From TrEMBL:
Domain HTH luxR-type: 718-783
Name of the molecule in the record: LuxR family transcriptional regulator
């Protein structure tokens, strides 16, 4: 007679709350069990190792004829009593005169048994020794252990248990997407247990997502937060999570003491660390969003870095205080927010926080200056990737550099960092963020060195122009030129001329842009030719290249192809030996504009596609969008209106993402409007809308593949597009087509003007249109009823 799972021996407890998610982790743990007799689940306290081990053990029961036995070690304080604790869990009687270890071996040597050893970290040595002894003597025994630190036994397979997946709070989460998120599902389940009427709604959806994100998907923290739903709304819980240790203090009274509050859980981990590990934990809490070893060595005091620094770091990884992440060829280390906050408290209590922040700031200033100095070179893509990884730390450093404690001693440090990051921010499309930091810097420090201010005014003006903020771009250029004239030195005057040239470019005055740009470029060339000191700085070379690009656009679009080509050759002469991609891509794009103006679409296609391939190396969304737009213009000239509409849609999506426009310079707007008009005339509003929406739905990689001919698209011409609009939006679309203003629509539908405006914007967005005229044409062509 076959024994059922329920009849098999063992002592697994019945769980009183539902088990949420963890399919991947369960599968992986079972896989590791099939390859090793010792599997250890590791992870930070509160991540759910115990619950996961119980679920894996329950799912494994069929494989163990002699049962699955759970041994709780959390309350064991004397490692010498470990064998007795295991024996008691197995229900073995005491036999005077015999060692308990021998008793365990005799009992388990002939049995198919799974032992679950839970919470081993504080008796690690004893557990490792006993596990090794039992596994050698008992061929059919398997052990599943949970520990914040690996056991270090031969043959051990380790699985790190990650936090639960959390929603992306950078976007407004939908209810459907939230339902599939493990962290949210856990919060909702535990909140409903406390308050049966609780439900996830459109109203509280974003707050619940924010809670789970702030708590890093840590199950214990999420459960403790969900308990608060008895007295608070989700929005109130999120607001109060600034002090998570104070808020998350009400847990299960029957849970182990260390798991009843988040603080006690982290206290337990802290007490298991050596004094050196505790000190390093505190110092490393100054980082935000992870760090690499060179940064850790750079900010920690000498006494911490000397000697066995790497061993201490490794120990913190083993203890699950630090999380290890492989990013390409690089290893990054990081802490959960709960662990980081705890370490920051210890750092503050020791009086070392200000020193740690100053060292953090100094190290990241050196990092960005190294990045700037090597930007125009073969390591350009490496530096972009590094600065991408360090954005959280850079933001912290910039914020700290604006505090009174720093401004009073070094008013230029913020400006030096921001100016050094100009090219990085530009190529990553972080225009709004860059301008926010520069704006704060320009207004917060009157003591900033004039030379730094001149450069920042120039940078901010260029960024404003890229955003299409022409008034602000012009104002910054005026301020830059005025200050440069006061200083009077060659480099400042050079920067002022670049600012004048770009102001003219952005305002659409091509002729006025030529003279100041030529003057600045000649000054830079003269400086380089003298060979004074160590030659021009990297930032000065970057401005020279930018000036050449601006001059190429101004001259090429004015009909001076010879000057435009000469500028391109100069850019290549500087960048090609250095194996640089960013400026070469921009130069190829400008060359494409000149070729398109002369009607040479073959050359325009070749050089624009080259620009697109080069810019993909540095993943610049701004230039990628400009290249897609240029290829759309070429497509209309070559009689491919569908391709043009798709590319216009893709370019529109990218420009919205970075807060720029797909046709930044005024005289390029005519190309944009002509392309849109020709494609609309050729396709009709309905087909144009379909193709445009296809482009807007593409990811960046998909759009580039399509532009380069690596991806084809198919469109169902028989599919009606009306159902993409709600009944109300269809009604609004008809009123727009009838020529009514938003104010009139609001009056006719008895809604507020703001709501009417929102409906119109939704219609434009859904249909992929940019004007009310397109809506009218679409309504007429589709002959839609007012209700779809």
């Amino acid at each position: 007679m076959t024994t059922s799972v329920k009849e098999k021996p063992g002592n697994l407890r019945v769980e009183l709350t539902s088990f949420i998610g963890r399919r991947h982790e369960i599968t992986e743990a079972r896989r590791l069990q099939s390859t090793s007799r010792l599997v250890t689940l590791t992870g930070i306290g509160g991540v759910g190792k115990t619950r996961l081990s119980l679920r894996v053990a329950e799912d494994s029961r069929r494989a163990f004829a002699d049962g699955v036995w759970f041994v709780a070690l959390g309350d064991l304080h004397d490692p010498a009593l470990l064998p007795e604790t295991v024996a008691a869990a197995l229900g073995l009687p005491d036999r005077p005169g015999r060692s308990v270890s021998r008793l365990l071996i005799d009992h388990l040597s002939t049995k198919q048994t799974l032992l679950v050893l839970d919470n081993c970290e504080h008796v690690l040595g004893a557990v490792a020794e006993l596990a090794q002894t039992l596994l050698r003597a008992c061929p059919d025994l398997q052990i599943l252990a949970t520990s914040r630190e690996v056991l270090g036994v031969d043959g051990e397979q380790v699985m790190r248990v990650p936090p639960l997946a959390v929603p992306d709070t950078r976007q407004v989460p939908s209810l459907e997407a939230m339902a599939n998120c493990e962290a949210v599902a856990l919060f909702v389940a535990r909140a409903m247990a406390c308050l049966p009427d609780f439900a996830l709604t459109e109203t509280n959806c974003a707050a619940v997502a924010g809670i789970c994100g702030r708590l890093d998907g840590l199950p214990l923290a999420i459960e403790l937060a969900a308990v608060r739903i008895r007295a608070m709304t989700a929005e109130q819980i999120l607001q109060r999570l600034t002090d998570r240790y104070q808020l998350l203090t009400v847990g299960s009274r029957v849970a182990p003491t260390r798991q009843q509050t988040l603080r006690s859980c982290v206290d337990w981990s802290y007490e298991l660390c050596t004094a050196r590990e505790q000190q390093l934990w505190a110092w490393l809490s100054v980082f935000a969003g992870g760090f690499e070893l060179d940064a850790a060595e750079g900010i920690c005091p000498e006494e911490l870095v000397n000697g066995d620094f790497l061993d201490v770091v490794s120990s913190l990884v083993d203890k699950s205080i630090l999380a290890r992440e492989q990013v390409g060829e690089v290893v990054r280390l990081g802490m959960s927010e709960a662990i980081r906050d705890y370490g920051r408290e210890k750092l503050h209590a020791s009086g070392d926080l200000p020193q740690a922040q100053r060292r953090h700031l100094a190290w990241y200033e050196q990092l960005v200056e190294r990045a700037e100095s090597e930007w125009i070179g073969p390591r350009q893509t490496d530096w972009i990737a590094r600065l991408d990884r360090e954005q959280s730390n850079l933001r912290d450093a910039l914020a700290f550099s604006l505090t009174d404690a720093v401004v009073g001693t070094d008013p230029d440090v913020n400006a030096r960092i921001a100016n050094a990051l100009f090219m990085f921010w530009s190529c990553r499309g972080l225009l709004a963020e860059a301008r926010r930091w520069m704006g704060r810097s320009l207004t917060s420090s009157d003591a900033m060195k004039a030379e730094e201010r001149v450069e920042m005014l120039y940078c901010d003006g260029v960024l404003a122009g890229m955003q299409g903020q022409l008034g602000e771009a012009s104002a910054r250029a005026e301020q830059c030129c005025s200050l440069a004239a006061q200083l009077g030195d060659a480099e400042s005057l050079e920067i002022g001329n670049y600012a004048r040239g770009y102001r003219a470019l952005f305002s659409g005055d091509l002729a006025a842009a030529v003279e100041p740009l030529q003057t600045a470029i000649a000054s830079a060339g003269a400086s380089s030719a003298t060979g004074a000191d160590r030659g021009p700085s990297a930032s000065r070379i970057g401005r020279q290249l930018g000036g050449l690009l601006g001059l190429a656009i101004a001259s090429g679009l004015s009909g001076d192809e010879k000057t435009a080509d000469a500028c391109h050759e100069q850019v290549l002469a500087i960048t090609t030996p250095r194996e640089e991609s960013f400026f070469r891509a921009y130069s190829s794009w400008t060359l494409g504009l000149t070729a398109l103006r002369t009607g040479d679409t073959d050359r325009a296609t070749t050089v624009t596609e080259l620009a697109l391939r080069l810019i993909r190396k540095v993943n610049d969304p701004v230039m990628t969008g400009w290249c897609l737009e240029s290829l759309a213009w070429i497509a209309t000239h070559e009689g491919e209106p569908t391709r043009a509409a798709v590319l216009m849609g893709a370019a529109e999506t990218l420009s919205r993402t970075v807060g720029s426009t797909s046709a930044t310079l005024p005289y390029l707007l005519a190309h944009h409007e002509e392309c849109e008009r020709l494609a609309l005339d050729a396709l009709g509003a309905r087909a144009y809308g379909e193709a445009f929406r296809t482009g807007t739905a593409m990811s960046l990689d998909e759009a580039v593949a399509y532009a380069l001919g690596d991806r084809c698209i198919t469109q169902d011409r028989t599919t009606r597009v009306a159902p993409v609009l709600t009944p109300r939006e269809t009604e609004v679309a008809h009123l727009v087509a009838a020529g009514h203003s938003n104010k009139m629509i609001a009056s006719m539908l008895v809604i507020s003007p703001r709501t009417a405006q929102g409906h119109v914007e939704h219609v434009l967005s859904k249909l992929g249109f940019t004007s009310r005229t397109q809506i009218a044409a679409w309504i007429a062509e589709n002959q839609l009823d007012r209700t779809p």
